[in-house]
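User: Fold this, then the next.

Assistant: Folding the first:
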Amino acid sequence: MLLGVDHSRDSTIHVGEDYGGDDRHSGGISPLTPKRIVFTHPVEGEEMEVMITSMMGNVVLNRHDELDRRLRDAGLQAEGSVGDAQCRLVKGAHIIEECIAMMKASGEYHHRF
């Protein structure tokens, strides 16, 4: 759930970019300060643990409006509000899948797994 923000603040996009093979690093997380993420693989369905030692970059993040539209148009994203905050409810796997689809469409996809 994104509460009060749009996809420009959606860190799940970086997981999709990593799956899509983006190797442009944006900093913040390093081998000395890794981030542990546990999630269900969007294709295989099994739980995975990933230690991220760098955050991927700019392939999809700079096109967050397109991602928002694609998720909405596909019926994968519910929208509403909680108080004054705009909300988006979407499965993380759908965000990752759409990021990969966007990278494939733009020729920026490089299979990593």
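Now the next one, as you asked:
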Amino acid sequence: MPGVAGSILVIIEFLCGTAGGLALGRWVPGYSFGKVVDGLIGGIGGLLLVWPASGIPGVGRFIGHVENAADAALQGVGGLTPAILIGTGVTGLLGGLVLIVLAGFVKEIVRV
């Protein structure tokens, strides 16, 4: 999705990933790297999870891959459907959580 719509989706992915990283860093202090680093790791995770998630059957349509006529028509005129916005946010949130958990595991392994 080029243009403004694509930029909006990238911003949503990054912000939701940042929120996920900050939340997990706060809930599990042993995995925290500090607020700024937790936010950056989460934001990067939010951006990274979208690529593999788009290949999962049934999930791709929620993050910008058109599978039905209504989404195709709206995207054809440059619109973003609520399903795409919510799906992108949830995927970004999960990506932030996954990457901060992986980074926390590495931190714990290196510490021991």
